[in-house]
Amino acid sequence: MQWPQLVSHLVRGEDLSYEQARGAMGAIMSGEVSPVRMAAFLVALHSKGETVQELQGLADVMVEHARALEVPGPTLDIVGTGGDMAHTVNISTMASLVCAGAGVRVAKHGNRASSSSTGTADVLEALGVDLTTEPERLQAEALEAPMTFLFAQLFHPAMRHAATTRRELAVPTAFNFLGPLTNPARPAVAAVGCANKAMAPVMAGVFAERGTDAAVFRGDDGLDELTLATTSTVWWVFDGAVEEHVLGPQDVGLETAPLEALRGGQADENAEVVRRLLAGDHGPVRDAVLFNAGLALALTEQQASGERFGGRGDLAEAVRAGVARGAEAIDSGAAARVLDGWVERSRSASR
């Protein structure tokens, strides 16, 4: 289709095929689409509602245009879409450090804050990690390091063609959901928080089509994390199929807590929360981190065994075991050593 036909097709409420979505994203990534036409396409697509095939087509092309990073062995990404406007502490970042401390290799994809006060990149910088490392040098580090951060700005240079449109559009579009689907390291396992109730199962469907083991989840209070305040819905992806489950903190041995207990601040404040967690502080932040890390560790256990959990009870049991494993990673100092070693490598590289 020509671009006007493509937009008209979407305005009529008609879905694109996977190939049509790929073609549109290819044109965007190549700089062939003006900001106005791109905005019309993205708004029309999101107003209609993205399908699995459409989102997969966009994401696959974005990955193909990214700088690749090879991380050896099975890898995990824990990431959220943002957009919940809750301004919490950096739960997925802390959960990633915990999982790395538990012996799982983490390749975390992320960026600076857009809808929150402090994004992963912001808090890592405040902790002393140099994010300016070029992908070539980062590739060498990734062969040995227990955790690698793929800074989206460095790994997706073709996204510069969409920068103006993304900056000036004041409504959500497909771009708000592509980050967790476009990790250049192509991790084997992904734990993804999605605040948007309609988009969460679509994202799970993309992982299922790819054959990637994943869990897409949202707090039933709208958080893009597993929440302590109420239950969370989980779309569990294994062997190309998606199952929906509901989990609460008490199902896995954790206490409930109000959302206010997880509020964060600017980068320096959130970095201090990370340090206190890794030093052994107890409370709602630790419980929220362990809940999310526990789910991710359950995913990695399933991926390693190749056996599907039989139902909600089995999933809760597996996450409970993951919570215990995450707690040991904190209490033994292993998670803190992941961060300390990372900061030291970062400083050595910049000397």
TrEMBL record:
Domain Glycosyl transferase family 3 N-terminal: 5-66
Catalytic activity: N-(5-phospho-beta-D-ribosyl)anthranilate + diphosphate = 5-phospho-alpha-D-ribose 1-diphosphate + anthranilate
EC number(s) stated in the UniProt entry for this protein: 2.4.2.18
Annotated binding of anthranilate 1, by residue: 80, 111
Entries under Gene3D superfamilies matching the protein: Nucleoside phosphorylase/phosphoribosyltransferase catalytic domain, Transferase, Pyrimidine Nucleoside Phosphorylase, Chain C
One Pfam family named in its UniProt record: Glycos_transf_3
Keywords: Amino-acid biosynthesis, Aromatic amino acid biosynthesis, Glycosyltransferase, Magnesium, Metal-binding, Transferase, Tryptophan biosynthesis
Enzyme class: transferase
Pathway listed: Amino-acid biosynthesis; L-tryptophan biosynthesis; L-tryptophan from chorismate: step 2/5
Molecular-function GO term, any one: anthranilate phosphoribosyltransferase activity
Ligand binding (anthranilate 2): 166
Record note on cofactor: Binds 2 magnesium ions per monomer.
SUPFAM superfamilies linked: Nucleoside phosphorylase/phosphoribosyltransferase catalytic domain, Nucleoside phosphorylase/phosphoribosyltransferase N-terminal domain
Domain Glycosyl transferase family: 74-335
Ligand binding (Mg(2+) 1): 92, 225
Residues annotated for Mg(2+) 2 binding in this entry: 224-225
Record: residues binding 5-phospho-alpha-D-ribose 1-diphosphate: 80, 83-84, 88, 90-93, 108-116, 120
InterPro entries: Anthranilate_Pribosyl_Tfrase, Glycosyl_Trfase_fam3, Glycosyl_Trfase_fam3_N_dom, Glycosyl_Trfase_fam3_N_dom_sf, Nuc_phospho_transferase
Cofactor (UniProt): Mg(2+)
PANTHER family cross-referenced by the UniProt entry: ANTHRANILATE PHOSPHORIBOSYLTRANSFERASE
Function: Catalyzes the transfer of the phosphoribosyl group of 5-phosphorylribose-1-pyrophosphate (PRPP) to anthranilate to yield N-(5'-phosphoribosyl)-anthranilate (PRA).
Subunit text: Homodimer.
Family the UniProt entry places it in: Belongs to the anthranilate phosphoribosyltransferase family.
Record protein name field: Anthranilate phosphoribosyltransferase
Protein source organism: Dermacoccus abyssi
